[in-house]
Amino acid sequence: MSLYKDWGYTSNPFKPSPIEPTLKGLNLLIGREKEKRKLKNRIKNNNGIITVEGQNGIGKTSVINASIYELYEESLSSKENDNFYLPCNKIFQISSKNNLTEFIDDFYFSIAQTIIDKKKEIKESGVKNLKVENLNNWLNSSEVENIKSQISNLGGMPIETSGFAKSGFKKQIRTLLSHIFSNSESSGIVCVLDNLELLETSDDAKRTLEYLRDEIFNIPEIKWFFSGSHNIFRTFISTPRLSGFIQNPLKIQQLPNINASYVLTSRINSYQNHVDNKPYSPITETDFIVLFESLNGNLREVFKRLSNYYSYVFEELDEEPYQKESKSRVFKEWFEQDKNIEFKALKDNLRDSEINLLKLIYLQENNPITDKTLDENNLTSISELVNVISNLEKQGIIIIPILENEYIEQNKYTRRQDFLKNIFISPKAHYIKNKLLD
Questions:
Q1: 325, 348, 371 - which closes a domain
Q2: Are residues 41 and 100 in the same domain?
Q3: Angle at CA 244, nearest 5°, toward 239 and 246?
Q4: Contact criterion met (CB below 8 Å) for 266 and 28
Q5: Distance CA 144, CA 150 (A)
Q6: 3-state secondary structure of 111
Q7: What DSSP assignment string belongs to 374-422?
Q8: d(C-alpha 221, C-alpha 181), whole Å
Q9: How many angstroms separate the CA atoms of 354 and 402, rounded?
Q10: Could you please report the per-residue DSSP string of 312-335?
Q11: One domain for residues 336 and 312
């Protein structure tokens, strides 16, 4: 039996993946009411593709999924308006290595699967503008049985394109969507394109999205959320073909520390195995906040470290701590040990010049970096500075947005300090900040 089963959980409550667009997922999202309200408002206004950006692991996709689910629940519960928003079964990702034809095929199969899976909800929605008779006709057709068979045989993966386009399948899906959601202004299927930074370069991103715009992004009955890391949408909005098509991004910031303890409580309660028995947790709310702050509020990293801590208590201790004081003592011992391991690994893999630059980046909020400070740290040339920045990024110490990375690689700046103005410290580096500055 796993440690989580032993301790009264249904499964690991700290999986670092985004929450699902479900009631359980909605209950797990803490402190994001303002962001959800903004996203729901944007999709109802129907002004193009909604964009969300922020640090990887900060919770962007979770906020999007919760917003979509709330819209869906509102659609089901309200009989007085014509809004009906249905979450797509799949979250999409695309990289520069993807075959775009296969990606488009996969998109259409996912839309078909969503309609099939949600046929009951669509029929029972009661929303006036939905044409259920068209759905009934389609669901009872031989084409649907063929789609179900292909999806089952392929595990949801796209089929070879030969014969696929000839079948008119894509045209059938688009026609069906227009028949079911006759008022596309206030209804449709909501899709998410996540982790746009996987496209790697601004040219890849522009070329890919401009192509997909005419293939799948302009379907009136499909509402899109795009999600990506810091400042990524500066790259796309600059192109004429996309500038009027993509909304300005909603930036997801770190969750306020005041909400951190509720994040822990919601996870424990939602994964409780028995109603009458609260699961055991070896960490106190106070210590969870310490861990949360040490990783700059990056929930993906927080949950990864917390899972490691749970394993440490389960595997290494002869007896689990139960009193608050003993829990804190054990946590502090592990916490220092874990940071020491990270700190040693960092020092072993970085040169003095890289460590010196990292220190300057840590301190630049209160002590702006100048040519003089770079000279004092032996970073006297642009080529040397670029080399140091590149290695820090490869080690996962700093984060550089796509467009900024290209500026750095192409030496587009003339002043050395300009190379550092849009660089972010990673959670991994934030974790050992105090040790490095001591």
A1: 348
A2: yes
A3: 85
A4: yes
A5: 10
A6: helix
A7: HHHTT--SHHHHHHHHHHHHHTTSEE--HHHHHHHHTT--SSGGGGGTT
A8: 7
A9: 21
A10: HHHHH-SS---SHHHHHHHHHHHH
A11: yes
* Digit-coded pLDDT (tens) for 258-310: 899 999 999 999 999 887 789 999 999 999 999 999 999 999 999 999 999 99
Whole-angstrom distance, CA of residue 188 vs CA of residue 192: 13
Same-domain pairing of 246 and 276: no
d(Cα 124, Cα 107) in Å, to the nearest integer? Answer: 25
Please answer whether residues 50 and 247 qualify as being in contact, where contact means their C-beta atoms are separated by less than 8 angstroms: yes
The one-letter code for the residue type at 393 is E
Same domain, 119 and 142: yes
Closest CA to 227 of 251, 254, 260: 251
pTM, full prediction: 0.86
Residues 134 and 180 sit within 8 Å (Cβ to Cβ): yes
Tell whether 8 is covered by a domain: no
Domain ends where: 251, 270, 296?
251
Task: Name residue 337's amino acid.
Answer: Q
Closest CA to 172 of 143, 200, 201: 143
pLDDT digits (tens, 9 = 90+) for 156-209: 444 444 444 445 778 888 888 888 887 888 889 999 999 988 887 777 888 888
Q: What amino acid occupies position 230?
A: H
> Token digits for 428?
């991994």
